[in-house]
Each structure stands twice: as C-alpha cells, then as structure tokens.
Inverse folding.
C-alpha cells in the first residue's frame, strides 16, 4: 500500500531531485527517482507555479475556441 507523503517529505524528495539535476546536469537528471520526479511535480502544482490539470484543460479549450487571452492581447499590441 502506498503511504501518502507529509508536506516535509514531499519537499525533501523534491529538493533531492532538484539538487541531483543542478549538481549533476544531464547525468544527474538520470539519477532522479520516480518519487523525486513526482514530488517535484507536486511542489510545482501546490505552489501555484503551474496550472492544475483542470485549469490547463480550460485554458486549452479556450484557446481552441479562439478565446482572447491576456497573452494574445499582449502579442497583438
């Protein structure tokens, strides 16, 4: 059975994966575990740095429908 992470465990795993990438470059990235990858993604999502999957789906749907976004307004200026 999978045990959920505490917030501290999630941050520790994410930091460990990020350090491997930072220090080891491409070679370090190959050493990042699946748990570390998942933790890095979870930190990005929970911090608001990335849209949630639902938000992303709405953004894609709006773009496909031709809706004007702040980005397209800025590009047209």
């Amino acid at each position: 059975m999978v045990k959920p992470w505490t917030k501290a465990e999630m941050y520790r795993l994410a930091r460990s994966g990020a350090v491997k990438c930072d220090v080891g470059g491409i070679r370090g990235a190959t050493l990042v575990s699946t748990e570390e990858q998942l933790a890095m993604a979870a930190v990005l999502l929970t911090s608001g740095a990335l849209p949630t999957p639902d938000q992303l789906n709405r953004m894609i749907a709006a773009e496909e429908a031709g809706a004007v976004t702040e980005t397209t307004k800025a590009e047209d200026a």
User: Anything to note?
Assistant: The two ends are 54 Å apart (CA to CA). Residues 37 and 54 are 21 Å apart (CA to CA).
